[in-house]
Design brief:
Length: 558
């Protein structure tokens, strides 16, 4: 189906609405750094919850997770459902400390707890990570999806898509800061959830022969029950390209292993995620926003994973294989490998009708643009407050700091636009993101966890822990690169590697701390009081319901 006039009108209405809201709430938001970077600390719970999800859900989920649903099945939903529980931990145990310390940035906590040197090291790292990994990958994946849906998939509108997405995000986020990002996210998240459900509904209805989405869901479960296994055994499910899915989701590691490393790092200590919680009216307001985000995470697999499973069923042969004879040609590369990530674009292009297609494409654009805007704002915040202000212009005026933030975001976006097209040479972009962040995230998580909850952790131990975590992580990565026959190396799934790196890094930090401080509490350590982690009734009830739902989901689809 073509992207017709009605679709174009729907998309234009969406774009004008977002720009209008962004520019309207931006008035007067460039006067102070707190106003620009933390939205005057005035965000209500519902804006925080919506903004958390809008910042999180991007082309990685719409495209990459649908592709994983196509290749693996519902098991990939562990990233979403376990994230809902992770959010509860962040809300109860991390946020009270962050908000009590009145932080602007996550690196600022490192300075408060450890020292300036480590803060600067991590600030530089995060700026580079946001620019060279996060921004570039989101723009690349988003542009690839739009090129497939709106174009012919041959790259004819790829660069136009990158430029359009980048300029769209910049149009309101550079001017209005976090206020513009957070308030537009409220609209964006509503749109992306509605657009995602439209795709799921249309695909399931098509599969059922017009009998409705519920009948389609029943058919999916009956036809490919193996795709609904959540905890995978080795050899249980193979992707269309013949890879054992256990290597991506190794059994119980999604419940008690490496999944926690990825989730705690991402949701607890990632600036572009946590920044909107620091901008809350109060701690209780922030915690209620966390609960809303947790409930929304439970819905995400319905709009990103289920469509991938439907696409698999529509394209498989009677034996359950994806072949050239059974599948649409767009699922095969020139080399003959199956392109799993084409699941969502193919469904949208083939089965979403005129008008609704404009809505779905707007939802995809919303997911991409909101993430880009969040990353730009967080990059600017870290550079301005953690690098520029303390080292280059200590007496800079508030308006001057805001200007530096805007310049930083502009430069970051230009660099990302230049680099994004080069990611086509990497093959699996989602894997590129996981591989890069998975090497460093265990070490950083170790620094924060011990810094928060073990008063004996020293500054030197944290520095050596971060440095030691890299060779430890690389040790585990050597075996899959051809040295697996050596007695000195082990070949483990990536999640096992992350978990082992995290544990070993904490052991290094504990040993150094005990040797250096002789078991004494550090002067900068966090004092935990009995009342610090008390939460209100809304958080407690919401947390109980989320835990109950996640337990039931795993019991049902184990």
């Amino acid at each position: 189906m073509e992207f017709g006039l009605l679709d174009q009108i729907v998309f234009i209405i969406y774009a004008l609405t977002i720009l209008g809201i962004g520019l309207y709430v931006s008035k007067g938001k460039g006067d102070t750094s707190e106003s620009y970077f933390l939205a005057d600390k005035s965000l209500p719970w519902w804006a925080i919850g919506a903004s958390l999800i809008a910042a999180n859900i991007s082309a990685e989920q719409f495209i990459g997770m649908s592709g994983s649903g196509f290749a693996i099945g519902l098991a990939i939903a562990s990233y979403e459902w376990m994230a809902a529980i992770t959010l509860l931990i962040v809300g109860k145990f991390f946020l009270p400390i962050f908000i009590e310390k009145k932080l602007y940035t996550i690196p600022e906590f490192v300075e408060v707890r450890y020292g300036t040197n480590l803060k600067t090291i991590l600030a530089v790292f995060w700026v580079c990570l946001f620019i060279f990994v996060n921004l570039t990958s989101v723009l690349y994946l988003g542009a690839t999806a739009l090129d497939t849906i709106l174009g012919t998939g041959d790259g004819s509108i790829f660069m136009y898509s990158i430029l359009g997405l980048a300029l769209f995000a910049a149009a309101y986020s550079l001017y209005g800061g976090l206020s513009a990002v957070a308030w537009t996210d409220v609209v964006q998240v509503v749109l992306l959830i509605i657009g995602g459900f439209v795709t799921t509904y249309m695909a399931l209805s098509e599969l059922s022969g017009g009998e409705g989405a519920i009948a389609g869901m029943v058919k999916v479960y009956e036809e490919v029950p193996e795709k609904f296994s959540m905890i995978l055994d080795k050899g249980e499910i193979f992707t269309p390209n013949g890879r054992d899915a256990w290597w991506d989701l190794p059994g119980l590691a999604v419940l008690i292993g490496g999944m926690w490393v990825a989730n705690l790092y991402y949701w607890g200590f990632n600036q572009y995620i946590i920044q909107r919680t620091l901008a809350a009216k109060s701690l209780r307001e922030s915690q209620k926003g966390i609960i809303l985000a947790g409930f929304l995470k439970l819905l995400i697999p319905l709009i990103v994973v289920i469509p991938g499973i439907v696409a698999f069923l529509m394209n498989m042969d009677p034996s359950g294989e994806i072949t050239r004879a059974s599948a649409d040609g767009s699922f095969f590369s020139a080399a003959g490998t199956v392109i799993n990530d084409n699941a969502a674009p193919w469904l949208i292009k083939e089965f979403v009708p005129a008008g609704l297609k404009g809505l779905v494409v707007a939802a995809l654009a919303a997911a991409i643009v909101s993430s880009v805007a969040s990353m730009l704002n967080s990059t600017a915040t870290i550079f301005t407050m953690d690098i520029y202000k303390p080292y280059f212009q200590k007496k800079e005026s508030e308006k001057g700091l805001v200007m530096v933030g805007r310049i930083t975001a502009t430069v970051a976006l230009v660099i990302a636009i230049i680099i994004a097209p080069q990611l086509a040479n990497l093959g699996q972009v989602f894997q590129y993101i996981q591989e890069y962040t998975g090497v460093v995230s265990p070490g950083i998580l170790a620094v924060f966890m011990l810094g928060l909850f073990w008063r004996k952790t020293t500054n030197n131990a944290a520095i050596w822990g971060v440095l030691a975590s890299i060779p430890i992580a690389l040790y585990f990565k050597v075996a899959p690169n051809g040295w697996s026959n050596s007695a000195f190396f082990v070949e483990w799934p990536f999640m096992h590697q992350m978990f082992a790196t995290w544990i070993l890094t904490m052991l290094v930090m504990v040993v150094i701390s005990l040797l250096e401080a002789k078991g004494k509490n550090q002067e900068k350590s966090i004092i935990i009081t009995k009342d610090l982690f008390k939460t209100g009734p809304a958080f407690n009830i919401g947390a109980f319901v989320i835990l109950l739902i996640v337990t039931l989901l795993y019991a049902l689809f184990w």
